[in-house]
Amino acid sequence: MALALKQYQRRALSSLEYFLELARVDGAAIAFSRAVDEGLFGDYRPMPGLPDVPYVCLRIPTGGGKTIMGAHIIQAASSSILERKFPLVMWMVPTSQIKDQT
Question: What residues does 47 pair with on adjacent strands?
């Protein structure tokens, strides 16, 4: 049985997919200004050294399902911007405790 995403997870994933689809066509900075609610955040800040790579952060609270979100984000990035069926992913965590929980 697949885990169903909660409403806030679906909204976050939908916003990210929208951003990635726009970024593929219009570039990350334009996509950011269109995908983010006006006044919610400042201007887009590209990744140092990789200005053309879409670079964003989703903030999900403790216990908010970041691992399941990560799996869905991989799928979203795979289809929307990477255009690959089976992308290579490096899953990094800050501690071995988090790794053991994943």
Answer: 50
